[in-house]
Amino acid sequence: MTMIKMRDVVKEYPGRGRNAEPIHAVDGVSLDIEPGSIYGVIGYSGAGKSTLVRLINALEPTSSGSIEIDGEEIVGKSESQLREVRTEIGMIFQQFNLFNSRTVAGNVAFPLNIAKVEPAERNARVKELLEFVGLGDRAKAYPDQLSGGQKQRVGIARALSTSPKILLADESTSALDPQTTSDVLDLLERVNRELGITIVVITHEMDVIKRLATHVAVMENGRVVENGAVYDVFSNPQHPATRRFVSTVVPGAPEGRELEVLCERHPGRLIAITLNDSGTGQREVLGRLVRDGVGAELIAGGMHEITGRSFGHLTFALTGDDARVDESIAAVREIAEVVELERVDAASAKAGA
Ligand SMILES: Nc1ncnc2c1ncn2[C@@H]1O[C@H](COP(=O)(O)OP(=O)(O)OP(=O)(O)O)[C@@H](O)[C@H]1O
């Protein structure tokens, strides 16, 4: 059964000022998030990501549409019914939201106290969770004595305390440095793999999606403009917003100033080759490009590993007799997507500007 099923979900806020149009923070979103997946939701500031998360854990009422959590409709439920649904959902935050007056153990125990779990069972659970997140020796510390990464580990342990089926992570690594981000993402991956918890990751960083997610939805102006398996979306982005996000982690064919610089540095004809995991490798490409009278130099691009599958762009400068270069290009076209780039020279680009 689908873990989170959204159909035509709308969240409307009153507009600011008199006679202002209402704000559609979420505007007709339909998504299926399957059990065991790590679903990334990416978008620029104001796209509606945080609102979507607040609707999933019913912190705010949905204006219209349907949200099913593990088969159970949550839209229109009473507060007491929602409390039960919320125990199925853990949440972590950008600013960690820990209680500074409580110890690490006290923070993790907090949801268990509310759920009236017996002390012996509660203490055992807290110990087990702190071991799981690698903080077994910090139970008595206070949040102020911890680094950002450690605080987020406490946040994760607390979110897992009631054994939820779903973990919502709202910009959970945005306040952390790159190494700490990487450690926290590794931990989230373990939460998913070892505990089988479905994770929804809200972020504005495509790197987080690339590292962690199995699926991605791109949001713009309250709508999902594109979604699917991460590899499919990365290797063939359709919407301009998706292309912009993908280009931040997987550079496409060079353009603009980068292309100008490459043209300044390299003579010949430039071609950009797109490779996916359909079997064609770099070696095969080179074998077809290089022939008598044709020189091929790799001048930009690289391959990327996305959900265990490879994908990337390679840009070559080809020198030699035009007819022979044509043959090389035709030979590569048989096995890969090839685009010939129009040369630009900086002087004429400036003159034209
Ligand atoms: N409580 C509210 N009242 C009125 N408007 C709101 C409210 N919450 C959000 N909005 C508006 O809804 C839109 C989406 O906001 P939301 O915070 O969900 O976006 P976001 O993608 O999470 O952005 P950010 O990354 O900056 O948090 C924005 O235009 C925002 O101003």
TrEMBL record:
Protein name, entry field: ATP-binding cassette domain-containing protein
CC per GO annotation: plasma membrane
InterPro entries the record matches: AAA+_ATPase, ABC_transporter-like_ATP-bd, ABC_transporter-like_CS, ACT-like_dom_sf, MetN_ABC, MetN_ABC_transporter-like, NIL_domain, P-loop_NTPase
Similarity field: Belongs to the ABC transporter superfamily.
GO BP field: amino acid transport
Keywords: Amino-acid transport, ATP-binding, Cell membrane, Membrane, Nucleotide-binding, Translocase, Transport
Subunit field text: Homodimer. Forms a membrane-associated complex with FtsX.
Classification via SUPFAM superfamilies: ACT-like, P-loop containing nucleoside triphosphate hydrolases
Functional description taken from the UniProt entry: Part of the ABC transporter FtsEX involved in cellular division. Has ATPase activity.
Signal sequence coordinates: none
GO MF, any single term: ATP hydrolysis activity
Superkingdom of origin: Bacteria
Keyword Cell membrane belongs to the record: yes
Domain called ABC transporter: residue spans: 4-246
